Amino acid sequence: MKEKIIPTVSFFKFLKNASKIVKNPLPFHHQNFEEKGDTFRLKLGLGNSVIFSRNPDFALYTLQKNQRNYTKSKIQTKDLSKYVGKGLLTAEGELWKKQRRLIQPAFHKKQLEQLLDTVLEVIKEEVDHIKPNIPIDIFPILNDLAFQTVAKALFKSEIDTPVIERLQYITEAAQQMLVKELRQPFKTLYFKYGGPIKKHINLTIEARTILKKLVDERLESDQRQGDLLDMLLDARYEDGTAMEESQLLDEILILFVAGHETTSNALTFILQLLARHQDVQERVYAEHAFAKANTTSSLDYIKACEYTKQVIEEGMRLYPPAYFVDRVNYEEDSFNGITISKESNLLFSIIEIHMHKDFWEEPEVFNPDRFANNAGMKHKAYLPFGAGPRMCIGNNFAMYEMVLAITEVVQRYKIIAEDTPIEIKPLITLKPQNAILEFIPRD
What we know:
This protein is of the alpha+beta class and 443 residues long. The protein has helices at 11-16, 18-23, 26-36, 56-65, 74-84, 93-103, 109-113, 116-127, 139-155, 161-183, 188-193, 196-221, 228-234, 245-276, 278-294, 298-304, 306-318, 350-354, 375-378, 395-412; strands at residues 8-9, 39-45, 48-53, 70-71, 136-137, 324-329, 333-335, 338-340, 345-349, 413-416, 423-426, 430-433, 436-441.
């Protein structure tokens, strides 16, 4: 096969658009995709470049077929790990394999079933905070909901509100600091020697101290709660040993980081979509009423809410919280005639893949019916949880939580919104902005 040359976007064009890219890089990348094709190289200066792609086959090749030749970029393996440690999200190589094998059983559907009543109880309490009949920004409430859900799934009754709030503050502060580091590289020396990084690492140490106290209390009590902490404490490596304490704390911190922000983002976008599509909202409400009348357990209820699941899947197609995936190859590789030099930086745009006209009919239209009959699981251009061995370990937990949260809101309220575009704020994840909705009680 004749070698293909990757089209290039010049450093001059990158520099010319730098101020816009800092605020929102997606329009710049979209323009390049439209002009250069599904894969292009962006020059960043000083010999550095990134290969951008919206080719789902290329993404699957990297994430699945030849994943052994690819690693996550230093954004996660180094930059993020200094705040949250070496857990599943940030670990690589043998450590990652070892931890994945150990932790995977805790996220099997049968294990998660015993957490659902706790999750639903938290959701009900957080939905109580919605103020009816006035326009409000729903994101802060859903952000609290998602964090509280992770905290209670991990520690059930042993963690109180002030502790949860402190952990939430520390977790979100560390993420905000990381965004500053990535978006303002010209301040690297100040961040490193002026105090901000040290300050946030100290906050992380405080979080680990809090979590260690909770773990120690559980071990001393010798009582089981049937939560994720029990499952993690029960987990054993192949040689029969348990996780060391430092590794356990790393994994718990990772669960807080990965388990709340993406879910709160997705829920916010989905409620905004429902508010702008009343027919879809009423179908969700009708499905809830039928499921509630015909099921006796939370898991059966979730299984009966098939259309709600489709709504979630379509919401994550339009607004994928993990809107990009990055990889670096260990050795030179090739795909479809393209040579990929050793240690190339690759960035796959999930949002562009999800909106690609070659793979989706009317991709800009919100249409949950496109996901009927589990179509999402079969679609190569649908990657909200990634793909391959490193596919999000908490995808089932997230889906269960979102079904319960959306139906809890819709059964209580009719959601309305101004007919205005949904606003986004691309940071490490795709975040909502100005998510102003009004909630009218149904009773």
